[in-house]
Amino acid sequence: MNLQVENGRPSETEGRSPREMRVYDFLDSLGVDFRRVDHPAVATMEDCIAPKAALGAPLCKNLVLCNRQETAFYLLLMPGEKPFRTKDLSSQIHSARLSFASAEKMEELLGVTPGCASVMGLLNDTAGKVQLLIDRDLMEEPTFGCHPCVTTASIAFPTEVLLRTVLPAMKRNPRLVTL
Question: Are the C-beta atoms of 67 and 74 separated by less than 8 Å?
Fold first, then answer.
């Protein structure tokens, strides 16, 4: 698959979702330079191989988790190739019985559907109900890649920009974890 990498937002917006365009508006408002690639919808990390190669950046795995009572919610960003074990995370955040949040909760809290979870979904969590957790290994990468809240595009920019510009603008202070 030969994917075309573009700089910045798409010039043609017809057929693009409002949530995707909101991500581009946000990044533009911060002056963030990013690369973008459009691609067929991806559902698994294996599907992300071509976008990852085109961007030259790892695309992170994004998991929306909650405790059993559904009173605490987490967005976990981790390297795509790393396996996720609940017990590895539970002990670090002192929350037993973690499970995946329902599609309804994802829509309510982050404005995304399953498969579309991304750090960019935190734009929709204006109440700050979702705690951001980032695996330390992801922060070692020079470039950060994610979806703009849709599974048909991927974006990448320096990891330093995520930490020093994007997350502060979202009023987010991530908790680093080791998985």
Answer: no
Give the residue from 145, 140, 112 showing the smallest Cα distance to 5.
Answer: 145
Provide the token pair at 12. Answer: 């043609």
118, 17 in Cβ contact below 8 A?
A: no
pLDDT digits 0-9 by tens, 34-85: 999 999 888 877 877 888 888 988 889 999 999 989 999 999 999 988 989 8
pTM above threshold 0.85: yes
Contact criterion met (CB below 8 Å) for 76 and 136: no
What is the pLDDT, as a whole number, of residue 63?
A: 95
107-139 per-residue burial string, b: 16 or more CB within 10 A, e: under 16:
bebbbbeebbbbbbbbbbbeeeebbbbbbebbe
Question: What is the C-alpha to C-alpha distance for residues 147 and 149, in angstroms, rounded to an integer?
Answer: 5
Give tens-digit pLDDT for 116-146. Answer: 999 999 999 999 999 999 999 999 999 999 9
Q: Are strands 73-79 and 130-135 parallel, antiparallel or unpaired?
A: parallel
Query: Rounded CA gap, 9 and 15, in Å?
Result: 14
Question: Are 100 and 140 a contacting pair, CB within 8 Å?
Answer: no
Report whether 50 contacts 153 (CB < 8 A): no
Degrees to nearest 5, angle at CA 14 with 9 and 18: 70
